[in-house]
């Protein structure tokens, strides 16, 4: 699978100089701007631990941007509402149908809004739990029990929900995991180093999956 990742990164680099992850500036009133160091920290970890030529700084991207196709992955986090206008829905659908991928990371309080937003994007899609044997948990690092627990909220197990369209996983939504908290600077949430390591490794897996399963 690591050889397949190298191939995926190589194919991406044929049309774009670096693999990019965009931070989604969404509407609805939620704090899209939170977790300020999360994505840059994740990108540095990827550079140091995986054979993926990533752009090390994050770009802030609106859902209506005409260049969404420049990004292998769009990342959004927050605690509150997330919503898309009709124009944004049209643009995001096109991006996802053409091989893009969306990660919605629930900081706490975003989950129900995010589910509605995903169903608005693809009402004909399936939003269902992603089982622990899915390749996203095994494509680079091995997570035999599925999504790791990073930050405690309601003493519930972590879960990953996937939006499937025409048999393809095009978006994921974390719940009771909070990967972005684990990617933040250590002093922000004071998560143990071993827990932060799991969060970073899961981030590598997500990008690995995106690059090796574009269609």
Number of helical segments with 4 or more residues: 7
Question: How much helix, percentage-wise, in residues?
Answer: 25-40%
Say how many strands there are: 7
- Total individual domains: 1
Spatial ordering of strands, largest sheet: 2-1-3-4-7-6-5
Category from helices, strands and their pairing = alpha/beta
Strand content: 15-25%
Name of the top-level CATH class = Alpha Beta
Ranges where pLDDT stays below 50 over 5 or more residues in a row are none
What would the average pLDDT be, to the nearest integer? 92
Distance between the termini: 17 Å
Return the string of H and E elements: HEHEEHEHEEEHHH
Radius of gyration, whole Å: 16 Å
Write the CATH fold name: Rossmann fold
CATH architecture heading: 3-Layer(aba) Sandwich
Main beta sheet, described?
7 strands, mixed
Shape: globular
CATH H-level superfamily: Domain of unknown function DUF4159
Description:
The relative contact order is 0.18. This protein has 215 residues and is α/β, with parallel strands linked by helices. The model has no long low-confidence stretch (mean pLDDT 92). It has a seven-stranded mixed beta sheet with strand order 2-1-3-4-7-6-5, covered by helices on one side. Helix 1 packs across helix 7. The chain has one domain: Domain of unknown function DUF4159 (Rossmann fold, 3-Layer(aba) Sandwich), CATH 3.40.50.
